[in-house]
Hints:
By secondary structure, the protein is α/β, with parallel strands linked by helices.
Amino acid sequence: MSIERIRIQDVIRCLRGRVIRPEILDTLPPGDARASLADLTRLNRRWGGYSTLQRLLNGMVPASEPFSVLDVGAASGDMGDRIRERYPSARLTSLDRIPSHLERAKGRRVAGDAFALPFPHRSFDFVFCSLFLHHFSDEQIVLLFREFAAIARRAVLVIDLVRHPVAYYFVPFTRRILGWDQVTAHDAPASVEAAFRPRELEALATRAGLRNAQARAFYPAFRIGLTAEVARP
């Protein structure tokens, strides 16, 4: 099969609905996972994760007032670090299902299940996740949003990928030049296949009972930023 035909098939697949395939990272022992976790930090820092986070937070959080954030699926905690840099009064808690992924995260760290968050209702001003939701089916995402809404006092904030052919090819085509780990090279296209369009993510948040869900795609980062308010009790 020619490269040209493979490319056309991949483009068509990205234009259709979500396809969820297994990713390797979450199956690895700690030592084998470090290189790919470092790649995720590098992708956030240099290719749009941090800039999307800043745009998401602008106008959403107070500049100097203390506020609290639960970072779900935090892994190395680099997005939480970015929030602390911009908002020194922010109180961050990093949660991940795999304890070893949190070994580099700063501050409060909790190993736990995102589908059964180990916190009382209304524990945090914001519940946030980055590059996390695309691992799950639409039905599971609705359940996650409901869980997030029970814990958040103000809003749920999400960053994920745009399902787009350019994002699909970026890591595989730049692997030799930029030195991506082989796990990253496998998982990155799978992540894009399972990613979203903005209206899709808004619809899932609305199904979960969140209010004023607004998702926006940011280019050339190929990230989606979603903000959704929590219904008042």
